[in-house]
């Protein structure tokens, strides 16, 4: 009995090896879906370009925030005063801008994204508006106002006011 089991061991190993190769080939083959009625994934379409170019917001900015719209003028003045310690929006290597996401200590490259409604957003690649995006409320070249799309982050950070700092002398 023992002798017959040992005689079959090479056959079993060959069968396992062949099965492994067959299964490996199956997993790397791209087969079409069985049904043609599959719906596209939401947000899977191409990103719309923003009406604001990344180079328009790259630079040094004074930064402050407000919750109450009546505080906007005072907040702009407070942001201007922050130019002694500016928030720097850098140019990204892939055509985006380098900024912080909500609650993130390390800045990363974000995209400027448009939307069918005509609104502009700043955020990571993905559906627009995404949970990590911030909506650009207004931008006139000198003052940029944004608000995070995520309700919790929007409440905590309020309306972010960026005032362009004068060029260094």
């Amino acid at each position: 009995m023992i002798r017959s089991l040992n005689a079959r061991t090479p056959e079993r190993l060959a069968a396992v090896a062949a099965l492994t190769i067959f299964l490996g080939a199956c997993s790397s083959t791209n087969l079409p879906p069985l049904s043609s009625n599959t719906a596209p994934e939401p947000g899977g379409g191409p990103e719309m370009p923003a009406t604001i170019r990344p180079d328009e917001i790259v630079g040094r900015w004074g930064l402050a925030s407000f919750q109450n719209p009546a505080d906007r003028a005072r907040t702009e003045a407070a942001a201007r005063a922050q130019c002694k310690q500016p928030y720097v929006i850098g140019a990204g290597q892939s055509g985006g801008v380098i900024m912080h996401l909500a609650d993130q200590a390390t800045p990363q490259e974000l995209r400027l994204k448009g939307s069918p409604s005509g609104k502009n957003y700043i955020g990571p690649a993905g559906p627009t508006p995404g949970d990590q995006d911030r909506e650009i409320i207004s931008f006139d070249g000198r003052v940029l106002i944004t608000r995070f799309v995520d309700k919790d982050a929007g409440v905590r950070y309020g309306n972010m006011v960026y005032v362009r700092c004068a060029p260094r002398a």
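Residues 9 and 15 are 10 Å apart (CA to CA). Residues 2-28 form the longest helix (27 residues).
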